[in-house]
Design a protein that fits this description.
Helix content is about 45%, strand content about 10%. A 4-stranded antiparallel beta sheet has the order 3-2-1-4, with helices on one face. Helix 5 runs parallel beside helix 7 and helix 6 runs antiparallel to helix 7. The model has no long low-confidence stretch (mean pLDDT about 95). By secondary structure, it is an alpha+beta fold.
């Protein structure tokens, strides 16, 4: 059967871009779930996808065929991640909170996952990093009411926190929850800054 059976971007949820996505912007983003599965997304550009599938992480044959389909053929349909993911058991919010990486080969999926798990353990420092994460959260909880000043004060820390998004894959529940809180706090600070910046433009 055609590998297309795995694609959740279908005629029912497809959209028609008002422009032609640039082929140079295409990439494959792999999302790691917590159930030994991966969500493989063929990204067309910042606005559209052309592939979304859910497979077992270690099903190399299927994943290799999917990577080949995505890279060797022109997109047949375009869609949005939030629409395509509705055809899976995962919610859009859940997927947005998953750790993901841009990969070029299906053979990289399992090794990358294992390496990221090891990176998490090294960063966790046997639980000692939890206090640092809590310290970050305390710092970001102190605001002045001036959104621009707050963002300027914390933008380096926000950049650091974003660079550690692999902690979404941590086996430590406390680490994962603290990191989720930090991401939410960083997002709020940035959103407040952008709202004020647009209002003052």
């Amino acid at each position: 059967m055609s590998i297309q059976k795995y694609n959740c971007v279908t005629p029912e949820n497809a959209v028609n871009p008002k422009y032609t996505p640039n082929p140079a912007d295409r990439k494959i983003q792999v999302y790691y779930t917590d159930k030994n599965q991966v969500i493989i997304v063929g990204v067309a550009d910042n606005n559209f996808i052309h592939w979304l599938s859910v497979t077992k992480m270690d099903d190399l044959a299927t994943n290799r065929a999917i990577f080949t389909e995505i890279t060797a053929n022109e997109p047949k349909l375009y869609g949005h991640l939030y629409l395509a993911v509705e055809k899976t058991k995962y919610s859009y919010e859940k997927v947005e909170g998953m750790y993901s990486a841009e990969l070029r080969q299906a053979e990289m999926i399992v090794p990358h996952y294992e390496e990221t798990k090891k990176l998490c353990k090294m960063r966790e420092m046997r639980g000692k990093y939890i206090e640092i994460l809590r310290c970050y959260l305390d710092m970001l909880s102190v605001t002045t009411g001036d959104a621009r000043a707050d963002y300027d004060q914390y933008k380096v820390l926000i950049k650091l926190i974003k660079s550690e998004n692999y902690l979404r894959l941590s086996d430590n529940d406390t680490v994962r929850k603290l990191y989720q809180q930090l991401e939410a706090r960083c997002f709020r600070i940035y959103q407040d800054y952008m709202t004020e910046a647009r209002g003052g433009a």
